[in-house]
Design brief:
There is one protein chain. By secondary structure, the protein is mainly α. It is built from six helices and two strands. It has a two-stranded antiparallel ribbon. Helix 1 crosses helix 3 and helix 2 (34-41) crosses helix 3 (45-52). Residues 1-10 have low confidence and may be disordered.
């Protein structure tokens, strides 16, 4: 299975994206065949089949075309619907809480010095 891993070294957040599953899901939702999708993208039907079976992944030039064909964003193609915004908000909250902890710690150190 071919998966794309996104690792954020700051927060340790890891998300596995299965492009093939997304391509198949959206293609079926639209009611088009692999051949029809391939023709619209200018690739072979074998390429679409390989994407859907996770034998390989669409190249980066094809991703915007795929998203446009499906009427979605590239983020949605990668499975980032609301998850991305929620993760960003969570990280902001975590950073804010860490800042508050540092301020309290620093304030306690300053008070102890006086």
């Amino acid at each position: 299975m071919y998966e794309i891993m996104n690792t954020d070294f700051m927060g340790g957040f890891v998300m596995t994206v299965k492009i093939g599953d997304a391509v198949r899901e959206h293609r079926l939702r639209m009611g088009v065949t692999q051949e029809e999708l391939a023709e619209a993208l200018g690739v072979s039907s074998q390429a679409v089949s390989r994407w859907e079976t996770a034998a390989c992944c669409p190249d980066t030039e094809t991703l915007p075309l795929l998203a446009r064909c499906f009427g979605i964003t590239i983020d949605e193609l990668f499975g980032f619907q609301g998850d991305r915004e929620e993760e960003i908000d969570r990280r902001k909250d975590d950073r804010n809480q860490e800042k508050v902890r540092r301020l309290r710690t620093d304030s306690g150190a300053v008070a102890a010095d006086q």
